[in-house]
Write a structure and sequence with these properties.
Blueprint (H helix, E strand, L loop, with lengths): L4 H11 L18 H4 L29 E22 L2 E7 L6 E11 L4 E8 L3 E5 L12 E16 L4 E19 L20 E21 L4 E8 L2 E11 L10 E10 L2 E9 L4 E10 L6 E5 L8 E5 L5 E11 L4 E10 L17 E11 L4 E19 L7 H10 L1 E20 L1
Antiparallel strand pairs: 1-2, 1-3, 1-20, 3-4, 4-6, 5-6, 6-7, 7-8, 8-9, 8-10, 9-12, 10-11, 11-14, 12-13, 13-16, 14-15, 16-17, 17-18, 18-19, 19-20
């Protein structure tokens, strides 16, 4: 993964450390601004508070005057636990692991410049996908997966055109830098007389591991329509991005003389397409209500396979996923307390990208409910500071591996050697965001 190191170093220098963990559906991140966080990201495709609006709908740039800059970050504190029982050779062993998802700081930077009365250009530096889980060395279930990570960073130039007084159109190019890894380890020691290789397989041996990185292109389109001066609707579509993560693999074929042998290879990873339909309704001079419905094409995430030419001409199965499209519903309010202070709140419901049957230990995905509050304060006519707080309830959900009805030789082999796991995942997420916006 050396090719991107210089690029990632430059990004880290400009924006700070980028460590991500997923808690929206799948490994999608909604946290694009503290402004939006305060209303649970309701109405994002229809609201142009500051330059950050372009990441969720480039057409919103046309509502911004002159030159604007917005920058901030969101701290994410997920608390995800897994408890259950691993059964091997008829023996049941209670096992658990806490805080499998890591804390994160998700930074962002946005720039917007009005070219003339009809054209506005912008640049967004942010991320829309990321996750990192680690089940630890003591969890007796790592034969099905002990870690998974996706880190992405997006450079997104946009342009907006004011077609009429009511209609605004926008488009953007997405340049995505991504890296990822996934792995599984033996959860117990297998003696030589029970091992298929006739050699002892120690606890913690890498059964399979793949990591790599890539850069790829995507695009987005957006539109906003002002029904009148009190009601507005907005729509945004972001294309899927296909990454081929080039790197190396370990495991897949256990060699006691060289258990850490590396194989050069690659793994395809699709970042799914998304769409958002939003509305904004000004009820009074002080009150406004905004809504969103989001769709993510998670059905494109069906399996992970490693291409390892030196090991086999056939792809090596890493994990069958079988995800499905998901939806997110959000409603929020904005209250203009006075000329300087704006108060926000919102609630959202995020449906899971997996059924109970397809949930896995490395990505214990489940339904979530968001509760958010936030505020913006105009320090000067040019400078606005925003802050927000969100609590996310994750629905308790069953986890079972190997999964019923999943034709995966990899899972079947893991069960035969190390046993099966059955249990439950529980959790919640705390988020705190801050942001500063300046108008020149």
């Amino acid at each position: 993964m050396k090719n991107n190191k210089i690029v990632y170093l430059a990004v880290a220098t400009a924006l700070g450390s980028l460590s991500t963990t997923a808690h929206s559906a799948g490994f999608q991140l909604a946290e694009t601004s503290a402004t939006g966080l305060g209303r649970a990201f309701a109405g994002e495709a229809a609201m142009a508070d500051n330059a950050s609006a372009q990441f969720r709908n480039p057409a919103l740039l046309s509502y911004l005057a002159d030159t604007q800059v917005s920058a901030g970050g969101i701290y994410v504190n997920p608390n995800v636990d897994i408890d259950g029982t691993n059964t091997s050779n008829g023996k049941k062993t209670a096992t658990s692991t806490d805080d499998v998802a890591h804390d994160a700081v998700i930074p962002n930077f946005y720039f917007a410049h009005q070219i003339d009365d009809r054209l506005t250009a912008g640049l967004a530096l942010a991320t829309n996908f990321g996750m990192e889980t680690d089940l630890g060395n003591d969890f007796t279930g790592t034969q099905f997966g002990n870690e998974a990570a996706v880190t992405t960073f997006e450079i997104n130039p946009n342009i907006a055109w004011k077609a009429t007084e009511q209609l605004r159109l926008g488009a953007g190019i997405r340049y995505v830098l991504g890296e990822g890894s996934i792995g599984a380890k033996s959860s117990i020691t297998i003696p030589s007389d029970m091992s298929p290789t006739s050699t002892t397989i120690p606890k913690g041996t890498t059964l399979k591991y793949m990591e790599g990185d890539d850069r790829a292109w995507g695009w987005q389109l957006g539109a906003v329509y002002d029904i009148n001066d009190k009601h507005r609707v907005g729509f945004n579509y972001r294309s899927e991005v296909n990454l081929t993560l080039d790197g190396h693999a370990e495991g897949f074929s256990y060699d006691s003389s060289n258990p850490n042998r590396h194989y050069s290879g690659s793994m395809d990873l699709t970042l799914p397409a998304t769409a958002e339909l939003s509305s904004l309704h000004k009820l009074t001079e002080q009150w406004a209500v905004h809504t969103s419905i989001n769709w993510t094409q998670w059905s494109s995430f069906d399996k992970l396979e490693a291409d390892l030419p030196s090991l086999s001409s056939d792809p090596q199965m890493v994990k069958v996923e079988n995800w499905e499209d998901n939806y997110r519903l959000a409603i929020g309010t904005t209250y203009q307390w006075d000329q300087k202070l704006t108060l926000r709140s919102g609630v959202a419901y995020d449906t899971s990208a997996v059924s109970d049957k397809n949930r896995t230990l490395t990505i214990p995905e489940t339904d979530r409910t968001w509760l958010s509050v936030g505020a913006g304060y105009d320090v000067t006519p040019e400078l606005t500071l925003d802050a927000a707080f969100t609590y996310v309830f994750a629905k308790d959900a069953p986890v079972k591996e190997p999964r019923d009805g999943i034709n995966s030789k990899s899972e079947q082999n893991a069960e035969a050697l190390f046993g099966n796991f059955e249990g439950e995942t529980t959790g919640n997420v705390w988020l705190v965001g801050v942001q500063a916006s300046y108008r020149f």
